[in-house]
Every structure is written in C-alpha cells, then in structure tokens.
Amino acid sequence: MMGAAGIALAGYPLVVRSAAAGEAIRIKNAAPGEDLFAYIRSAKGKFDQTLYQQVIGAANDFKEGDLTIGVGAKDEATRKTARELLANTTIKDLYEHPVFVDDLQKLIWRTTDQAQYEKVKDWTMGELKEFLLTQSESEIKGMMNGLTSDTIGCVPKLMTNEELIAFGQKIFNPLPGTQMGSKGYMGARIQPNSPTDHPDDVQWQTFNAFAYATGDIVIGTNPVDSQVVSVAAVEEALKDVVDTFKLNDIIPWCVLSHIDVQAEVAQQYPGSVETMFQSLAGTDDCNKTFDVTIEKILKYAKSKKGKRYGLYFETGQGSEFTNGVENGVDMMVLESRKYGFSRAVAMELAKVQPQGAWLHVNDVAGFIGPEVFKTREQLVRCCLEDIAMAKLHGLTIGLDICSTLHMDVTLDDLNWCQDQIMPANPAYLIALPTKNDPMLSYLSTAFQDHVRIREKFGYKVNDAMWDFYQRLGVVDANNNYTEHFGDPLWVYYRYCQAKGDKRSKDEIYAEGRNKVKEVEVRGVDIAIGHGKQRWDLNPELEAKVKALYKDAKICLKAELTPAFVKTIPNAVAIRTLSKDRDDYITHPATGEKLSPQTIAALEDLRDSWGADLPKGQIVISDGLNAKAIMDEGHLAPYLDELRKLLAEANVPMSEKNIVVTGGRVRAGYRIGELLFKNADPHAFRGILHIIGERPGTMHHSYSVYITVTKGTTWTAKKIDHDITKLVCNIADTALDPKDAARETITIIREMVGKKVNNSRLLGRS
C-alpha cells in the first residue's frame, strides 16, 4: 500500500508538459549548495515541471536521444552543475515530485517499501551515492526497496564509470535455486534466430552453443512469423532439445513473440510454452504501442502459479522517444521505470512461485541505432548505468552488448566494450554463432566471445548447466575443454543417442554435415572449431562475417535508382523530409514526415479517386536497405502474387504503387491518413508498406507492414505500431516473396475477422 506521501500524490495530474524538443539545456547562476528545487524557484519564481525534467536530464552523460527530446546538457559545465543540484536534492523531494505520472508511476509508488523509504527519505542524493559505494550488500538490500524508480534512475547520473562498476560488483540478485545472477557467474541466453523460422536452424544453433559450453539462463528465439502455428513450431523445436537432453529443470526455452501470442500457443498446444517473454516500456503510452498494460502483465504473472519458470522481460534506453511518447523524460529515468515495472511483477510472481520469483531482464542497450547514441563509449556507459539501476531494483539483469550496423561501432569495438563492461558482473549476455544475428541484422555477442570472457574474467556458467556440459563431453572432469569443444556435430551425435538412435557415429556425423550445409544455405552460420585462440572464429567464418559487415555499410548508403523506379508499374515517386541518406540515418524522424510536395501529390491522388475509394494502397520505401527492394527476384514476385491474390479475393486496390525515398515505417501511416481521410468510418481500409530492412545478412531482406483498420481510425489519425502486423525477412534466399504474399493475405483476413487458412508453416516437414 502507499504511505502517507503516496496517498497525497494520488491526485497528481496524469499529463505534464514535456521539455522543449531539440533544445540543449544551459544552466547558469546556480548558488553554492543549492538543490534542484531551490534552483527552479530561483529561475522561474515557482516550481516548473519542464525545467525539472530538463535539469534531471542534463545530469546524464551525453546521448543523442536526450538532446533530441530537449533534456540534454548544452555543455560540460551545465552537466556538472546539474549533477551538483541533483546531489543536493533529497530522496523525499524526488519522491514527491515524480518526473511523470501515469499508471506505471502509481504502480511503482504502490510497490515501494514504505518502511524502508522512511529510513532514507531525508538523505540527499549525494549521501545516497556515498552509501551505495561504501556500505555492504546486506546493508544496501535493507533499504533499496524503499527507493522509487525515479530515485534509482537519478543516482547513477552522479557516478563515474568506475563507480558504477564498483557498485555492480557489490549487489547480486540470483534466480532462485541457481547461481545465475550470483557473484562470479556470467551466463548466456542462447539466441538461435532463423530468417525463415526453420526448426533445424533453431536446433543447430542450440547444438552450436552447447559445443562451446555456452548457454544457461534461457534458449530464446526471436520469431519471424508471429502467427500461432508458426510460434508453436519453434516452441516445439526448442522443447525437443530440452526434453531430449533432460534439461527441463535446468534451462527453459522461450519464443519472443508478443506475450498474448505465447499465451494462445500455450492454450492450443499444452506444454509447449515455458518461460514467457515481453518487451516493456517506461510509460503507459509507450507500453500501449507494444500492446501492453500493467493489468495484462500482472495477470500473466499470476498465471505462473506453482510453475518453476516465470517471466522474461526486455528493455532498452530510447524506446519511448523513438516512439514519440517519452513525455519529456530522459532515457535513463525511463529505463529505470521499466525496472520498477519489473520489480512490481517480481513481487507478484513471488506470491505464486514456491521457489521464489523467476524473473530476469535483458537490457538491449544498442539495438535502436544512432538516434539514441552513436559511439562505443556511450554503449559502455549505457550498459553500466542499466546494470546499476536493475541491480538496485533487485533484478537479475542480463545485457545485449550490441550495436546496429548504422552505428559507428565496429566488430572490434564490441570486444573492447565487453572488456569495459564485464567487471560490473551482469548475470548474462546474448549468445550467437557469430556476432552477426542472421535474422535481426545487428551485432551482438558470439558463443566464442563467451569463451574469451570466461577465461579473461574467471566467470562461471550456472553449476547445473556446467555439469551438463561435462556429461555431454565438451568439458572434462577437471573443467578443461575436450576434443569435442567447438564441434556441433558431436552435440548432434549425443542428441541422436539420447533419442535412442543406434546408428554409428560416422553415419550420424555424415547426416549432421548435410544438415549444417542446409542451415548455412538458408543464411545461418554455424561456428565450427576455432582460430588461433579458442575464442577466435575459424578463419573462413571470420572472413565471411567481416564481408557481411562491409556489405551492410554499402547497403546503408544505397538509394533507389531512377531506372529501378521506372520498372515498378504505375509508380508515384515521393519523398519524406530526409535530405539524404546521412540525414535519414541520424535523424529518423525526418523519414517519418512527408514533404509539402509529397502531401500535395497524395492529395491529388486521393482526389482522383472521387467517391470510389480503393480498399487499400501499396507503399514501397527504401528503408535502411534500398538493395533489398532492388535486388532481382525480390519486389516483383511479391507484388505480382499479392495483386493476384487480392484480385481473387475481390479486394479493389489502388492501381498506383507509391514509391518513397527516405521512407520509414511511420511514413506509411501518414500516407494512409492522408489518402483515407474521408473514408467510410465503418469500412476497412489498408496500407501495405514494403520497406527495406536493416542490412547485415546475406539476404538483403525486406518487410511488409500491414495496417488494416476502419475509416474512423484513419480519420482520427490514430495509426501506429500497435495496430500493425508484420511479415519480415522476405528475400529470394529467405522467406520466398510469393510465400510472403500469401502470408500477407492470411494476416489481412485475420485483421478483418474473416476465417483464414493456417499459416505458411503448417505442415512443414
């Protein structure tokens, strides 16, 4: 329950003003010893919420995202002053003046321990920092549940990287009945992603991880297709590996579709779902774009009654402002609020799970792109901040030390980042065959990076999983790697043996080699053996990864050529406000807004329809990879099959294909709002937006964003990601364009409530 202060705040307005977007903050004339509130009163004559948000944001280390929303410091002098003001401010004052109030903030208040809060409320933030750096783990754990997420989100602003590391080395929140999250342990989430959701791709990457004695907290796949049947197929592939090796009480599996889809899979295919996953945001508004509510997540927590495994959340700085719903709050405090959400859910899980709450959080620090931050130094800082904030919330925190290929972070830079961050002892990292994810097209942590990190820092894998690696024969009784280290064929052989397969080792190895070739043809690399050191990729694979990195940089600069646009039937060429590729990459919002000339052209197109509005409009954008659109055999087969199927279904479409230069996903929403401004409020209208995906894989793939809703929603201009469905990884070497067209039709029929045939994955052998 809320304490007296919390009750007094219950009537706090749900909406506060945002800081002025895009303006750097300069703080002048702060008096010695002045706190945040005295400074605001001096500057404004009274409390001012906007300036409050700005000064708190200005105390952050520099990140582009904070500057974009108008809470970034103008210079180092301003940053220093903001930190001094914050250090002089009391915990009580921060508690009573939240940076933003919504239902999530109210949940955080309700789940803040009032008895512990009373112990510390009169401390200044400077005193809190000193306490955290000088006192023991037990003393810190005796008060940390009395801190709100705003307070926790502010204290790391006062710390150097070295101080953040020192704090990270002090606080540990292990998962119940394990060493995961304990001091000296650093595990892995195996991430066996496939550009086609092929079960063999998923299983062989898992065998690959086991061959390097890597993986202990979860085997978690990001699906391409989030239809129930498709997700169920991947769940079953993961379950089969866990069941076969009898690891059910040691490591869970998870398919990272929306949590509602996972629940439906669990209902239709009992026993197929283990840990459940969901991405979280730091405001109600942003959670809405994820189709998430507090009530929904708490309901799923309660559904884990009596179960060993609970929930798995993913977070990351920047998700709110990139969705336009940061409400004037800096990225760091919003990240802390996600951990406050997670802490509240863990408290609910603890009521129903007999061994304790099984909940862990995975911070994806660099996944969004250069609009959040650009450099390796910023990536390190972000990870250290997030480790500290999550641990202070009592959470088991893992990291994805990652970058997109349109950031200025190289493959070698990621090794450097790992070495800077690892002393803070996160619970786990992501793990892939190479640093390059074959489906999500970003850079992360390879299996062999884990080998290097374990050797350099002395970290251990969860004991029960390490025992399995010894039984598997990858590690010997003296904890040394055996001759089977780095050999996924050996793991496959042991898998077949566990299933009762009586064939010889040579026969199973021969079959395994063929399967590996099939997996690699689909664009999924399998790491075998090693280079000069155990943690080095074999030379051939290392060369391939570097070539993909180089190709990605070329793709990012590519533009739709006039000659190609002429090959698109009935093309209407338009532009967003992005001036060029550099502007598009570094200022994503420009790719979401239409130029005045474009608006005029679209209005002309709409007027040409008169009263006979089509049911839908196809939009084609370059996105982050124009080559994905222009490669031979990519766009044309999809368009031809899609228009044929729509005609067979008697769906009248616009004959025009709108081709956007500098287009992002939301540009498609704005186009639809213009074209369907006067649509029948009760009739469905749709935008099918074809857009180049992030480069970095061999596929040069594109996605289709499917937005189908009634005219009243288009007219109200309420279109965003929460009502949009997706078909992704489309390429002649990944999801076949004609299959993607059929999947698009399936999704459209579901969206308008019509009976559909099953997903394309049904019946796959």
Attribute tags:
765 residues, Annexin V, domain 1, TIM Barrel, Rossmann fold, 45% helix, globular, disordered N terminus, disordered C terminus
Give the SSE map.
Layout: H1 4-8, H2 36-44, H3 49-58, H4 64-68, H5 76-87, H6 91-96, H7 103-110, H8 114-120, H9 125-134, H10 137-141, H11 149-154, H12 161-168, E1 187-190, H13 199-211, E2 218-221, H14 228-244, E3 253-255, H15 259-268, E4 276-279, H16 284-289, H17 294-302, E5 311-315, H18 319-322, H19 331-352, E6 359-364, H20 376-392, E7 396-400, E8 403-404, H21 411-421, E9 428-431, E10 442-443, H22 447-457, H23 463-472, H24 488-498, H25 505-521, H26 539-557, H27 562-567, E11 571-575, H28 581-586, H29 596-609, E12 616-621, H30 626-630, H31 635-648, E13 653-661, H32 665-675, E14 684-692, E15 702-710, H33 711-715, E16 724-730, H34 737-751
Parallel strand pairs: 1-2, 1-9, 2-3, 4-5, 5-6, 6-7, 7-9, 11-13, 12-13, 12-14
Antiparallel strand pairs: 8-10, 14-15, 15-16
Helix pairs in contact: 3-5, 7-19, 12-20, 13-14, 13-24, 14-15, 17-19, 19-20, 20-21, 24-25, 31-34
Provide a descriptive summary of the structure in words.
The structure is a single chain. The chain is of the alpha/beta class. It folds into three domains: 164 residues, Annexin V, domain 1, CATH 1.10.220.70; 356 residues, Aldolase class I (TIM Barrel, Alpha-Beta Barrel), CATH 3.20.20.70; 194 residues, 3-Layer(aba) Sandwich (Rossmann fold), CATH 3.40.50. Helix content is 45%, strand content 11%. The protein has an eight-stranded parallel beta sheet. Strands 11-13-12-14-15-16 form a six-stranded mixed beta sheet, with helices on both faces. It has a two-stranded antiparallel ribbon with strand order 8-10. Helix 14 links the parallel strand 2 and strand 3. It is globular. The N and C termini lie far apart (54 Å). The N terminus and C terminus are likely disordered.
